[in-house]
C-alpha cells in the first residue's frame, strides 16, 4: 500500500487580513508514504528544497507524522517518504504549513484515519501557531479564521471559482527573511486608525474575491499592520509592488510574511512578473516568477 498526499501552496494575509485570511494556490507538493515494519523512517526530498531540507529525523514531515502517531497512541512501525516539492521554501507560500499537514495526513492515512479531517486541521494549526496558511492548505480556496474562546474556527468562504478566474503572479526574491524575524519586527500595539484601516479593508477583500471584482480588490488589498514594517526590509520590494501596479496588476501585496509578492490580474500577463523581477534585480537580488491561479481544492489523500 502507498499513500499519496497532495498539499497546495498558500498565500496568507492578502494585504489587510493579517493572521486571518489565506488563499490556496495551484502549486502542489506531492508526497508518497509507504509503510515499513522495521521501525525505520527514510525520507527523500526532490524538487524545491532538495539538498537544503533535512532528510533525517529533523524533517518537519517526519516530526509531524510522529506527532500524529503519538496523538493516536500508536507506535510508528516505520515508513518510507518520497517528497516531490514544488512549493519553494522560506518564500511566504506556506511551505512549512504544507510540510506539517503532509506529515499528519500521511500518518493518519497509514493508521486508517483515526483522526477526522477537522482534528488533523486543529492539530496542524496548534503546531503552526497561526491558521492562515494551514487552513486554506487543508480546505482549499479562500479561508478566514478566528480564535474563539481559545479555539480556532476556520471557514472556507465563497469565492468566485471559474466564472472570472484571477491570475496570480508570484515573484520570489532570493532574500532570506524568516517568518520569526518578520514577526519580531512588528509593533505590539497599533494606533486605532490602523486597526480601522485593516478591519474595513479585510471585509472588502473577501467581498472582492467572492464577486471577482478586481477593481475593488485593488482598493482594498492594502495594509497598515505589517507591510509598512516589512517591505522596507526586503530590497526592491516596495519598488516591485509599485511596478506591478504600473504593469497592469489590479492588486499587489506581500505574500504572507514575504519575501515574495503576490499580484492579481484579470489576464495572464508575463509583463507583470517581469516588471516586479526587474525591481528586485535592480536592488541586487535574483527573483523567480511563478504564474499561478487560486486553487478551490485543498489537500488530497489518495490510497494508491
Ligand atoms: N500571517 C503570518 C504573518 C503569515 O504575516 O506573519 C506567515 O506565515
Percent in strands: 25-35%
Class of secondary structure makeup: alpha+beta
Specify the CATH class of the largest domain.
Answer: Alpha Beta
Bound molecules: L-homoserine
Describe, in plain words, how this protein is organized in 3D.
There is one protein chain. The protein has helices at residues 60-71, 95-110, 117-128, 134-139, 179-184, 192-211, 214-220, 227-230, 237-246, 270-282, and strands at residues 3-12, 21-35, 41-47, 79-85, 142-148, 151-157, 167-173, 251-254, 261-265, 287-293, 300-303. The radius of gyration is 19 Å and the shape is globular. Strands 1, 2, 3, 4, 5, 6 and 11 form a 7-stranded mixed beta sheet that branches. A 4-stranded antiparallel beta sheet has the order 8-9-7-10. It has 2 domains: 3-157 and 295-303, Ribosomal Protein S5, domain 2, CATH 3.30.230; 167-292, 2-Layer Sandwich (Alpha-Beta Plaits), CATH 3.30.70. It is an alpha+beta fold and 304 residues long. Bound molecules: L-homoserine (HSE). L-homoserine binds next to α5. Residues 12-13, 18-19, 130, 132-133, 179, 182-183, 226, 256-257 line the site of L-homoserine.
Amino acid at each position: 500500500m502507498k499513500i499519496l498526499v497532495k498539499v497546495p501552496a498558500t498565500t496568507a494575509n492578502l494585504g489587510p487580513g493579517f493572521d486571518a485570511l489565506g488563499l490556496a494556490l495551484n502549486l502542489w507538493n506531492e508526497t508518497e508514504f509507504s509503510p515499513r515494519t522495521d521501525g525505520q523512517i527514510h525520507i527523500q526530498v526532490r524538487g524545491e528544497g532538495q539538498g537544503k531540507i533535512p532528510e533525517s529525523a529533523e524533517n518537519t514531515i517526519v516530526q509531524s507524522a510522529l506527532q500524529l502517531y503519538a496523538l493516536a497512541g500508536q507506535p510508528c512501525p516505520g515508513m518510507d517518504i518520497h517528497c516531490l516539492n514544488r512549493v519553494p521554501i522560506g518564500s511566504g507560500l506556506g511551505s512549512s504549513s504544507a510540510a506539517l499537514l503532509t506529515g499528519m495526513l500521511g500518518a493518519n492515512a497509514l493508521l486508517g484515519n483515526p483522526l477526522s479531517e477537522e482534528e488533523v486541521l486543529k492539530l496542524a494549526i496548534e503546531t503552526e501557531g497561526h491558521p492562515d496558511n494551514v487552513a486554506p492548505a487543508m480546505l482549499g480556496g479562500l479561508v478566514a479564521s478566528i480564535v474563539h474562546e481559545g479555539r480556532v474556527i476556520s471557514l472556507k468562504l465563497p469565492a468566485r471559482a471559474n466564472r472570472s478566474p484571477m491570475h496570480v503572479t508570484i515573484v520570489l526574491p532570493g532574500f532570506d527573511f524568516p517568518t520569526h524575524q518578520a514577526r519580531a519586527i512588528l509593533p505590539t500595539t497599533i494606533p486605532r486608525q490602523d486597526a480601522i484601516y485593516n478591519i474595513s479593508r479585510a471585509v472588502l477583500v473577501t467581498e472582492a474575491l467572492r464577486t471577482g471584482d478586481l477593481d475593488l480588490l485593488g482598493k482594498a488589498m492594502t495594509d497598515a499592520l505589517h507591510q509598512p514594517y516589512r517591505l522596507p526590509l526586503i530590497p526592491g520590494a516596495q519598488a516591485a509592488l509599485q511596478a506591478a501596479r504600473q504593469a497592469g496588476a489590479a492588486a499587489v501585496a506581500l505574500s504572507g510574511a514575504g519575501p515574495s509578492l503576490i499580484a492579481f490580474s484579470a489576464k495572464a500577463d508575463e509583463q507583470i512578473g517581469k516588471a516586479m523581477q526587474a525591481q528586485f534585480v535592480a536592488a541586487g537580488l535574483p527573483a523567480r516568477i511563478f504564474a499561478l491561479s487560486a486553487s478551490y481544492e485543498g489537500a488530497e489523500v489518495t490510497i494508491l
